[in-house]
Amino acid sequence: MRRKKYEEFEEDNGTVLRYARHENGGGSVEANAHVDPTAYVAPSAYVDRGASVGAGARIGIGAWVDHDAVVCAGAVIGSAVHVGAGAVIGREAKLGARVKVGDNAHLWDNVRIGPDEVISDGAVIRAAARDQRAA
User: Fold this and answer.
1) Which residues form the domain of 39?
2) Residue 9 lies in a domain
3) What are the helix and strand counts (H, E) for the chain?
């Protein structure tokens, strides 16, 4: 008997999404997402369609990288983090556990966000100033 190497989920609108296990960590990666082979995706993490995860990035347990989001090289996404649709997480950025990043937010390179923070939709966070501005 042949075993499937993917899981399928159906969205409310009837679209079927197909997820395969990432070789480095075993997390679920949708067929139309791009995850660098050197990135780590924890077993219970999800990377949705159109999302991109760069070289050496780490996606923690229970994290969800929503559709069309970008996690750049070397970024660390903590456990139970949600990276909203279209959000960009810069190179070497670090997000603590349970952070919620809003849709289309942009966290620049080297930004550090502590646990349980909420980043608004469209916010721009720079590492040096650590200020938040509407996009």
Assistant:
1) 28-129
2) no
3) 0, 20
CA gyration radius, the chain: 15
**pLDDT tens-digit profile, the chain (135 residues):** 444 577 888 878 888 888 999 999 999 999 999 999 999 999 999 999 999 999 999 999 999 999 999 999 999 999 999 999 999 999 999 999 999 999 999 999 999 999 999 999 999 999 764 444 433
Residue 48 belongs to a domain:
yes
Please, what sign has the CA dihedral across residues 43, 67, 50, 106?
negative
- pTM (two decimals): 0.88
Whether 35 contacts 47, CB under 8 Å: yes
